[in-house]
Fold these 2 entries.
Entry 1:
Amino acid sequence: MSSKQASFLDSVHRNFDKAADLMDHPSGLISQIKACNSIYEMNFPVKIGNKYEVIKAFRVQHSQHRLPTKGGIRFSSYVNKDEVQALAALMTFKCAIVDVPFGGAKGGVAISPRAYNAEALEKITRRYTMELIRKNFIGPSVDVPAPDYGTGSREMAWIVDTYTTFKNGSEIDAVGCVTGKPVHLNGIQGRTEATGRGVYYGLREVLLDEPEMKRIGLEPGMEGKTIVVQGLGNVGSYAGSICQNEGGAIIVGVSEIEGTIVNPKGIDMDKLIKYRKAKKTIIGFPGSKKIATREDWVKIDCDVLIPAALESQIHKGNAKSIKAKVIAEAANGPVTADAEKILLKKGVVIIPDMYINAGGVTVSYFEWLKNLSHMRFGRMDKRFNQNAYGNLVDLIERNTGKAVTKRDKSIIVRGADEIDLVRSGLEETMITAFHQIRDIYRRRKKVEDYRTAAFISAIDKVASDYTTMGVFP
Ligand code: NAD
């Protein structure tokens, strides 16, 4: 990205201002909602091999209008203060959009995880957690991190272990200090897939919207839509495979760090994920062709682009060459404000990050609730429901004199497990939030895109919290 282009934080601010200018909240309130409340920048030494390395890291709490604050931890050599601030701000708006009662936060450690072995990464993660504990930047009622780019359940396990060891039994809800933990360590079923699954539910809703599909010349529905995915990490791999397996979409291109592959007939996502695990590359995947320039993934002929890697991937330098009619921002900030202007002029539908990738924080919320209640979802009501449905089927059989088949009975007479409840709660959340955004988009004449509508939805909710608290009149 050239220096002339808007930075990630500039883009977030420009998008915020565009929405705020259409609203009539007092300017002081708007400034408070936009401002970043607390920034903790730290440098700490870690002994790696025979040497000490000084690691730069951040935790930013953008807004404490609701507590705890919430946001992932990113491990990447690109991490810098502006980026973490932008990501923390997006978390505030994301939580508001999906009615998750948290403020926004984000953490970043400026390392390339590929450059370290597991032992070194564990040392860095534990030391970072200690820094957060020292400054009261972590805790189930204060600030709750989660995975993000470059981190996963393994890092969250190290964090919860460091935190609970430090608290030494003095905090009954200590395991709620972080989400995205392994399921056997107080995590929740369905968290790993949650962001990608949320992308699927959100994209499906948008593609089902008949007037909008008519406007861009697509048939409503996901079945048969062609999709290109950038980034085969946590978010991109689940988003791609669920859109393919449950939505009937065809993945015609995938871009990763090692290059971009295409196959107009479709790339089987599950096989590709296994292939990359084994071969450490997507290049050479049977039936696919590598394209000359990795960055040309944006030019591939398709209906939908799913950028799921990093911010600023679609910028004013490549926006004009995009053929897709829909962009689902699975990553945070993948489309710069300059690119967005070009794309909106072309009529492209951009489904904004702070809505479409909110599945992760939604299921993190469920995990946090599970940790506070000290009980898995479904434990109290699964058998009760099973018995009630069973009685109902018996009653119908008796009254009609007809027997329900064994197979049908096993489908009907089934209480929900944790994974069923998590998926159902996530689906409900993504659908409800989209309808709120779409209502604003349809009803307010000056709102011309989903991002502005999403910001209006979020700003209104945060503003309402501040006024209810009496902070602003
Ligand atoms: P990840 O580390 O699991 O995967 C990212 C993938 O992108 C990696 O495989 C990496 O090799 C690839 N990549 C990096 N640069 C690339 C490039 N230039 N071209 C092609 N591929 C590239 O990260 P993730 O957790 O999937 O996060 C991806 C994005 O989604 C980030 O923007 C993150 O903030 C956002 N996000 C993640 C979550 C979550 O729950 N993990 C939630 C919301 C948003």
Note: The first helix runs from residue 8 to 20.
Entry 2:
Amino acid sequence: MLAIEGLSKSYDGKKFALSNCRFQVEAGGICAVVGESGSGKTTLFRLIAGLERPNEGRVSIKGEVVSDDSMVLPPQERNVGYVFQDFALFPHLTVSQNISFGLKSYKKETVNKMLSLIKMEEYAQAYPSQLSGGQEQRVALARTLAVQPELLLLDEPFSNLDVGLKSSLRQEIRGIVKEMGTTMMFVTHDLFDALDIAEEIIFLKDGHMLQHSSITDFAKEMEHPEVLQMVANLSTDARRMLEVMAHREE
Ligand code: ADP
Ligand code: MG
């Protein structure tokens, strides 16, 4: 679905926000990009979406090059859905109007399907200011999914939510994209988000990929001090789960 080759980006021509990134994501997969603040996660997503031009390397979607250092296919022509970190819902539009925003015309059927997918039918006429953080996140997701992107990018979808809400929203989003058959990438600084729903995990640090593993190989392949530190910061239960995974026979 997505192939990233030797991708680098510098905003000022000196310091690289992203360096020589290389990976692929299979169609229908869920891939988490994990890293601390400033590690280049958003830059990677902006490059994939076509919002930035790479200095080197290229982005291909379904075998077609959509970005390299000489050409950037505009965001609206690459069928990639992007949910920004701050949701960016329109405050003066209702939930229904927000969801239908990207459609060429208001399609009641699509809006209703999306409302049912995010289980918010009764909020159709509510305004964003009347919603909780988790509800806003779901509406932002529905608005993006309404145009049926093949690749969905979620930037820090769980970062503004409390723990209980976070856990149910993770599973809910996972269920929704699986039902739609959408390929999804999401950014998080919390490794547990990735362990809970991702099938692949990419670690970024200072723009460099430290590790790229499938969830099944993650525990066996972790070796970078930064990755190990992040693992050490997990809850006891999560660490125990990883230990079991690391010692699991092939
Ligand atoms: P993350 O999303 O992991 O927090 P970013 O991709 O936002 O990281 O940022 C990576 C690096 O690039 C940081 O050093 C940041 O300051 C820098 N950066 C991001 N966006 C810009 C920009 N528009 N102009 C200049 N520098 C930027
Ligand atoms: Mg970011």
Note: The two ends are 27 Å apart (CA to CA).
